[in-house]
Amino acid sequence: MKTVVYIIITAVMIFGLTSSSTDFIEASTKSVFYTTEYGSITIDHEQYLKPKYVHEPIQLHISGTIENYQRAESTQMTITSPSGDVIENVICPTREGEFDFISQITSNHSTGQYEIRVIHKEMIIGPAMFKIITETENELKIQNIPSWVKNNAGWWAQGQIGTSDFLKGVQFLVEQGIIKLA
After folding, report:
1. Where are the domains of the chain?
2. Confidence category of residue 139, pLDDT binned at 50, 70, 90
3. pTM over the 0.70 mark
4. Which of 71, 74, 141, 167 is at a distance of 20 to 30 A from 27, taking alpha carbons?
5. Which fold has domain 31-134?
């Protein structure tokens, strides 16, 4: 039950009992982890909120490992946009095959799903995927949370209702499939 309570408290902080959702850069705090026998790719977030202005970019951090890495061979990372455009980047893994890549998402990027692949020799790792969404798409997700959930979480955080009453509400959300436990 501690996980569920954390989810609700996080939702309260993100979805605006005390602050506006537009104060947050990322639309998701969940990481993307993709793995094969050839290696792995990790992306910091599964969704990013598209910046409003070009001078306010968001950092995109991609890391991972390449199994049986051979240093003499070239290693590429491709990022495919929703329109199918492919950006190729040469990456330089460590001797152990670990890599780190940082890029920026700006207001010039298209919304939609992006795919990342790492290619070393004839091995392909990926696709690992992330989305860039608009503020409107993010607000639609926020609106799907019933107001009573926000109220209960706020009252519980302020000590106006007890933990058992709060957990009954959380249990209802789980039973109705509004919150899914992994």
Report:
1. 2-21+146-175, 31-134
2. low
3. no
4. 167
5. Immunoglobulin-like (2.60.40)
